[in-house]
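User: We ran a pulldown and think these components assemble together. Before we commit to crystallization trials, I'd like a predicted model of the whole complex to look at. Sequences follow.
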Amino acid sequence: MAESAEKMKTSKIIDKGIEEGAANLSSKKIEKVIHDVLQNETGARLKTYVETCIHCGLCSDACHFYLSHDKDPRYSPAGKVKQTIWKILKAKGKVDADFIKKACEIAFTECNLCRRCAMYCPFGIDVSYLISIVRRICFKLGVVPQYIADTAHSHASTLNQMWVKDDEWIDTLFWQEEEAADEIPNLRIPVEKQGADIFYSVIGPEPKFRSQLIYQAAVIMNTAGVNWTMPATPGWDNSDMCMYIGENEMMGRLKKAYFDTAMRLKVKRIVMGECGHAFRSIYDQGNRWLGWKMPPIPVIHAIEFYYELLKEGKIRVAKKYEKGVTFHDPCNIVRGRGLHEMARYVTKAFTREFIEMHPNREHNYCCCAGGGVINCGPPFKKKRVEGDRIKAEQLFAAKSRGAETIIAPCHNCHGGLEDIVHHYGLGMEIKFLGDIIYECMEKPESMGE
Amino acid sequence: MHEIYKFVSGPLVWLAFIIFVGGSLYRLISMAILAKKKDGLVYEYFSLKYAFRSIYHWLIPFCSRNSQQHPWLTLVTFAFHVSLIFTPLFLLAHIILIKESWDISWWFLPEGMADFLTIVVIAGCVFLGIRRIVRPEVRYLTNTSDFIILALVGLPFITGFWSFHQWPGSTFMGILHIFSGEVLLVMIPFTRLSHMIFFPFTRGYIGSEFGAVRNVKDW
Amino acid sequence: MKKRPVKLSAPIIFGLVLCLVMTVFAQEDIVEVADSIFSGKKIRPPVPFHHEAHNEKAKIYECNVCHHVWEGGKKLEYETSEEMECSECHYDTTAAGYPFDVIKAYHDNCKGCHLQKKAGPILCSECHVKQ
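Assistant: Here's a predicted model for the assembly, 799 residues in total across the polymer chains.
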């Protein structure tokens, strides 16, 4: 029975990127690429992780995929490692194209690299690192889900995630400046301001289809009187799907362009919009690829920035958000930066009723969208939403205690939670923290009146 | 009989300890060199403070959320590991042998307590073995080597217990006890029993990443 | 410090059964290894030891094979110590208040000889037989 289920699993979803990539493989090529990756790019961590794992299965309960699939062991973190990297190591790279297809699907669409399991393994084995190795192998074999591969191509051609052209970017900033000036007459989005305190950076999807977030950020910046700027050149985008497909070289190029831009503008520090994976890329992975132990310029996430502004009295609460809210802790800024308490401080300041979901903080369940999973696109949407039933249950429990709005300070989480809320009919609203602040803060015009 | 005893309690003990200590050092040092060569970041990000913070929270039962979620397993594994390490080090019979050889001795466990701790280890092996079979998520990860490892650990305790209680064949069991203990020592560095020597490092490293870089708990 | 030996005398009489055994075999034969230092500290069962039978079987005719006397690091060839308790010389009790020295002396004496002669018991359970 397990056999047939396994067959169904691989044959159900057809992804052009995976299929066509796998069609070009020969066993010789597979063996060589695997050998190269293992030989040149891995070492003590892989070896220790594989040899130290005592097969205890204690990581299982950490994984939302496992919990959402009625505890099917194939979805446990170690179960996914067993199906991929253990087999690769055991076969010494002598695996066939079908195996690579299956490994690719597991590594790209059944693991969000959320690192929750690293907190549940008694040995602290970092499964996300092991899965990243599988992704790296798949990438070097040219077997990558089509949608995320396309996004990575956008990064390679435009240095941003969404094929936004250079002039479209500038145009968008001017457009949002004009829009926001209707509300706050003196509002500016200072472009290319040398020596500003802060370089505010966003991800590609913001100018593409969430430009109101740039508008809101501009309002917050202007209200708080922050000396800020945004660049007019490529390097404005902090997102990074190359990191998630294992295209480390391109990740390095992106981060280099990004830090170079910040240095060219001579800013004191970088503030990032409400995105999680971008934070991981700049604070944790991309900088390392470039040889920076920590980012060369201080980088803070929007949550920390809002917290500072609120603490320093630069933004003030005009009214409390009326509906009950709950807070979704995104992996990359909570397990990745420990911003959960700051987020709660800001959230509670602006809302009337705060309801915790359980588990929460560093133990929160993943949105199932991050780690590039949502970026693998429509072919995997159903699988992604069904793979996070546990999230729906967790949200529903919060809703039953009065939470109508979910605050999720991360773009991927937003996308993932929207799909979950829709699919499971939860009827909850999802907002960025910036949405709430924008709505409830004191603004200059109201101060003037 | 006397020749076998002489052999297992003489040269083989030396051999076992030399392989155990030497093998462990070899594994650690070669891994450290490999890490220096290929995973330099492990050294860059390793922070003693956060490594110890993490190790502490994972050694004390019920500190980590995971250990709270599996109270029985936590109790069994804790008792199992403590008994496993503690019993042979503080067993009267072992200390007497060391006294005979090197004329040194130290505090020892009351015999009843040692007997109890031995039962804990044996029961722990049985529990963990059954868990491997009945829990689907564990069974999925289990292969033969996992049972062999459990048997390796259990055998010195079973034979020691047998011999201590002087059940039939206790002379043979006594010899087997010494021999199986030596096999266990020799296998530690070269099987997944090496989790014993790598634990502080894997735990310490992830603790450092979570603590020093990511400013968050890892338990 | 001169170390002086072990005396394997001073029988302890264990009730009627033992008495009977004793009368049947040889009067005043030693049936058990004992030493007053163990009083109240016995952990393992005492070692049954039939002095005459053992020595006959082991062909030991000199007392000081076991009841030795050491002086200046040398075993004195003609001195014997059967009138003494072993613990009069082997008396260190530092570790856990337990007489490890005399234990070592016994074990060296018995097990050492057994191993050398390839005869007689050597494992814990072979001597400290449960009663």
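The domain at 15-127 of chain C is CATH 3.90.10.10 (Cytochrome C3). That may be worth checking against your pulldown data before setting up trials.

User: Thanks, that helps.
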